[in-house]
Amino acid sequence: MGASLDLVDVDSLLTAEEVDVRAAARRFADERLRPSLPEWFETGSIPARELAKELGALGFLGMHLTGYGCAGLGPVAYGLACLEIEAADSGMRSLVSVQGSLAMYAIWKYGSEEQKSVWLPRMSAGEAIGCFGLTEPDFGSNPAGMRTNARRDGSGDGDDWVLNGSKMWITNGSVADVAVVWARTDDGVRGFVVPTSTPGFSAPEIKQKMSLRASVTSELVLDDVRLPASAMLPEARGLSGPLGCLNEARFGIIFGAMGAARDCLETAIAYAGERIVFDKPLTSYQLTQAKLADMAVELNKGILLAVHLGRLKEKGTLRPEQVSVGKLNNVREAIAIARECRTILAANGISGEYPIMRHANNLESVLTYEGTSEVHQLVIGQALTGQSAFR
Ligand code: TGC
Ligand code: FAD
Q: Which of 22, 30, 119, 226 has the most CB atoms less than 10 A away?
């Protein structure tokens, strides 16, 4: 956080290593990402392969994992990297979090030694891109209903698996080298490591997005995709497998959303200082200051919450409903901040010359993916009452 926005001295809660990681991420975001984002967002295309390699070289892919070329940093360092990258664009943070917290984490946590040694070093270096296929066209919030299935077939080379079905809204899908696909089997939901070159696999890109345009989003089509027995993730059984990965990615979003919010607020403060209305700078009016103060308070509270949850994660005590508190609050506040900042820039607020409308549009996706705000309210409601209201 820039010094003037860090009202409660969050920096004093950070280690020297965390501050260094944050500085490196901020430098990358400012120098490499920020200048190109207006164009990437407008054209709806990103140089995903180049970016993955650059992010890998900086150690940002799977940075909170250990071994296999991963940086082995703590959760707060990882969160701060997400914050700085999302200050540039939520789509860039998505690239990082889907790679590190979903695809790599699934293999790291539930994979065989062979799966780990084949994929993780290449993925941490950004030489191989991963995606994570859980959502289906008819099952987003309720992945338990998934129809994608995997059946055993002995007619090939031993005990093959054959996958059929489709996944929807999959980040990195069309640029991925490997897809972690969750499918129904006779033994419940299981995860599969699917090289995207496997016959029967295709990943058409989803177009006409009004949000997260600087990110690749795709359908995954699995049409008799034949895989060896060794493609199944041996240690993931049931829905707790994919949901365990979501905890990781949701954690990164708790920090990340505050990055988008901070960027909006910094932009609005700078703009209001220059903008003359009724003969005086916009910053000199009480109404403007009230808006700025309220937003800065929410930003500081959100970052404090993120760091606190990070410390719980470090200790190994972070519970899923606590992740839901962070994701619900910080994304909800980030989107409110983006919209309020837009009012300060007024007409200029809708222009692509400023990042605010881009952040606001992106945050609509962030509010929905990794569990909608309603899903997180229900997770918290269940923790409070002991009653599940999902069904
Ligand atoms: P439920 O019966 O409660 O649980 C089934 C099993 O899962 C376990 N479990 C968890 N395990 C780890 N972490 C969690 N957060 C968990 N929540 C539940 C649970 O203990 C049980 O285990 P077991 O061993 O007894 O079988 O499940 P449910 O069917 O009632 O659903 C619960 C609900 C609705 C909370 C869950 O389905 C959910 O979170 N839905 C939202 C789906 C979602 O978030 N999808 C995201 C897809 S990925 C994505 O969006 C990437 S966006 C790109 C980016 O990140 O940038
Ligand atoms: P639905 O589940 O159909 O929900 C519709 C509405 O109903 C929502 O408001 C929801 O909150 C509400 N609702 C649902 N259940 C209840 C209930 N019990 N009570 C009250 N209200 C309820 N998925 C992946 O697997 N991998 C990815 O990489 C990925 N990337 C994504 C990238 C983008 C840009 C987007 C937009 C989505 C991505 N997703 C991904 C999908 C995302 O996780 C889902 O969109 C999300 O889980 C919600 O599912 P849905 O869109 O089907 O909404």
A: 119
